[in-house]
Amino acid sequence: MPEEEQPAPSAGSSAVDGSVQAARWSAPDAALVEGLAAAAAGAAAASGRRLVVLVDGRSGTGKTTLGDALAARLGAQVVHLDDVYPGWDGLRAAADAVVSDVLGAPSGHRRWDWVASEPTEWVSVDPAAPLVVVGCGALSRASAPLATLRVWLEADDRVRWDRAIGRDGEVFAREWERWSAQEASFIAAEDPAALADVVVRT
Predict the structure, then answer these.
(1) How many Å apart are CA 141 and CA 110, to the nearest integer?
(2) Which residue from 103, 130, 136, 176 puts its CA 20 to 30 A from 150's CA?
(3) Concatenated DSSP letters for 113-179?
(4) What pLDDT does 83 receive?
(5) What whole-number distance in Å separates Cα of residue 30 and Cα of residue 148?
(6) Each residue's pLDDT tens digit, 130-167
(7) Which DSSP symbol is given to 190?
(8) Which residues, 6 or more positions from 117, have their beta carbon under 8 angstroms from its beta carbon?
C-alpha cells in the first residue's frame, strides 16, 4: 500500500513519484491508476489512434500489478510477456515480438509453454481494441511510437528480489542472474526509461 496518496499524473506528465512501502505493493494507488488511465485515453483521443499502453520495468517492480489494474480500468486486453518469452534467454525475442506480432498484423503472439519448454498455440489479439502490454521488453525504440502511453517502473534491487522470489520461488532464484543480465542488456540498448512518458518508483 502507498505510504501516502500520490497525485494523479496528467497527460503531459514526464514522471510520477509512486513511492510505496517496499515489498508490500499488493495494489497500486487508485489515484495513480486513474491518472495513468486518463492520460492513456486522452492521448488516444487526441491522436485518433488505438489506445495502447506499454508497462515495462525490471523483475519485481510491480509491472503485472499495475498493468492488470490499468487494463481493468480501461476495459483493455492485456498481454503479459511472461506468456511470450521463448524461455529464459528470450527477452530480446519477446521485445521484437511486441512490434512484429502483438502490435503487428495479424495481432497476437505465440504462447510459450514453460513446462514443455516449447511454443504452443497462437493467441489472437483484437487489433482494434484497447491493449496493455506488460513485461520487461515491452518498451523499446521500435515499440514506443506505436503506443499512446509508455510507463517505466523502478524499485530498489533488494525490493525487486524479495517480490520476485516471493512470487516465483526457487525456480526464478536459480535463473535470476541469467535473466538480470538480459534486462541489463536490453536497458543498455533501448534506454526504456528515457522513452517513457511516466516513470513510477514502487
Answers:
(1) 22
(2) 176
(3) ETTTTEEEEEEE--TTS-EEEESTTSS-TTTGGG-SEEEEEE--HHHHHHHHHHHHTHHHHHHHHHH
(4) 98
(5) 20
(6) 999 999 999 999 999 999 999 999 999 999 999 988 88
(7) H
(8) 87
The amino acid present at 64, given as its one-letter code, is: T
Residues forming beta bridges with residue 80, ordered by sequence position: 134
- Reported as a single tens digit per residue, the pLDDT across 192-201 is 999 999 999 9
- pTM comes to 0.86
Domains with residue ranges and CATH for the chain:
22-201 (3.40.50.300)
Q: For residue 6, name the pLDDT band (cuts at 50, 70, 90).
A: very low
Adjacent-strand bridge partners of 199: 152
CA distances in angstroms from 99 to 2, 96, 116, 125, 152, listed in the order given: 33, 6, 26, 13, 18
The residue count of the chain comes to: 202
Q: Find, among 10, 3, 150, the residue nearest to 66 by Cα.
A: 150
Whole-angstrom Cα distance, residue 115 to residue 92? 21
pLDDT at 25: 53
Residue 194 burial (CB count, 10 A): 11
Could you tell me the three cell numbers for 200? 513510477
